[in-house]
Amino acid sequence: MVLPKTIRVDPLAPDxxxxxxxxEVLSKGGIVAFPTETVYG
Length: 41
Fold this sequence. Notes:
Layout: H1 16-27
């Protein structure tokens, strides 16, 4: 079982290395989640 990993990204100055890490996860079939301001319900 793979434990979740949190990567904090500054929305005003995103670090390309952190974005590349998320891309790698996605390219291997993983899941990337991020919060939004939208509230459902």
